[in-house]
Amino acid sequence: MSLLQVDNLTVHYPGQSLPALQQVSLSLAPDELLVALGPSGCGKSTLLNVLAGFIAPSHGTAQFAGQPITGPGAERAVVFQHDGLLPWLDVAGNVAFGLKLQGVPAAKRAAIVADTLQQVGLADASDKRVWQLSGGMRQRVGIARALASQSRVLLMDEPFGALDAFTREQMQQLLLQVWRQSQRGIFLITHDIEEALFLASSLVLMSPGPGRIVQYLRPTFSQRFLAGESVRAIKSDPEFITLREQLLASLSRAQQQEAA
Ligand SMILES: Nc1ncnc2c1ncn2[C@@H]1O[C@H](COP(=O)(O)OP(=O)(O)OP(=O)(O)O)[C@@H](O)[C@H]1O
Ligand SMILES: [Mg+2]
């Protein structure tokens, strides 16, 4: 059964002439990393917000494990573009925050926090304050917090958008390793074609005006990375470059149609 399933989803915000999303259908299997790629305004965050349960569909359905999504739930952890860390807590406190709210006992909480900080390479930073961290470290704390929640799926809205190219690439590799270790479904939004191709086991290309899916792809580059191939070899492979250029062409075509 799909972890997430969206059928004919339309979201029309009040007062807007066009729907933000029109008749969008997709599904996420439990072991998939599904990427939604598209330009600004094509409805990516709207889609994630429906999956997170923050907004309701105008038409169509959104389901988690076969049940309609009616609000936020601990089984669907969200990583926001801006990390949303709590500055008055240290790193461990931020990662433990959701667990504390859920009433997980202190000893178990500490074990989960230590384990997830280890996974994201921040074992030595657990007592640091948020303002002592670099941008990349902050993003990793955000990811650790989502992982610690023991959710079945991670919903990530442009999680690496604010990072420099080098840190971004490191974070992409870390995410793939975390994905393999944690065995969760991931839904990730990006407007970066290279990032989408490298990470996705399944990819939807979206277009604005109204927001819709214009192409479905199943790239295999993340599997090649996890099998040991280097990121540089993958991203300079002619197959990768050809697909990247095709996606770029599809995106510009879709934008020209919107402008026409
Ligand atoms: N709360 C809202 N009320 C009204 N319109 C909204 C609301 N949220 C988003 N929109 C509109 O819906 C469309 C899709 O917005 P959305 O934020 O989903 O796009 P996006 O693909 O995430 O863009 P970006 O890449 O810039 O984050 C846009 O035209 C936006 O102006
Ligand atoms: Mg957005």
TrEMBL record:
Q: Which family does it belong to?
A: Belongs to the ABC transporter superfamily.
Tell me the CDD domains matching this sequence.
ABC_NrtD_SsuB_transporters (cd03293)
Q: Could you tell me which residue ranges the ABC transporter domain spans?
A: 4-233
Annotated signal sequence range? none
SMART domains in the record, alphabetically?
A: AAA
NCBIfam families xref list: PRK11248.1
Q: What is this protein called?
A: Taurine ABC transporter ATP-binding subunit
UniProt-recorded Gene Ontology molecular function terms: ATP binding
Task: List UniProt keywords, sorted A-Z.
Answer: ATP-binding, Cell inner membrane, Cell membrane, Membrane, Nucleotide-binding, Translocase, Transport
